[in-house]
């Protein structure tokens, strides 16, 4: 649908081995940081900003 929900982000990060399956709260927090229009999901620009800043703000 062109957007990434916290559930989709969690699933992708778990499949890549980058996140424990029980860390859904962390995915919601990551999305909230970059969700500039507060719709609860990331569009392409928001996702791009998250990826570009992931080294400095997401740990």
From TrEMBL:
Classify the source by domain of life.
Eukaryota
The GO terms describing molecular function are: calcium ion binding
Q: Which InterPro entries would you find in this protein's record?
A: EF-hand-dom_pair (IPR011992), EF_Hand_1_Ca_BS (IPR018247), EF_hand_dom (IPR002048), EF_hand_pair_protein_CML-like (IPR039647)
Keywords attached to this Swiss-Prot or TrEMBL record, sorted alphabetically, are: Calcium, Metal-binding, Repeat
Where does the record place the EF-hand domain? 1-19, 22-57
Which Pfam families would you find in this protein's record?
EF-hand_1, EF-hand_5
Positions in coiled-coil regions: none
The protein, known as: Putative calcium-binding protein CML44
């Amino acid at each position: 649908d062109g957007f990434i929900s916290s559930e989709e982000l969690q699933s992708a990060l778990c499949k890549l081995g980058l996140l424990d399956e029980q860390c859904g709260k962390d995915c919601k927090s990551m999305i909230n940081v970059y969700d500039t229009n507060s719709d609860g999901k990331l569009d392409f620009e928001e996702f791009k900003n998250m990826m570009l800043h992931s080294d400095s703000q997401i740990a």
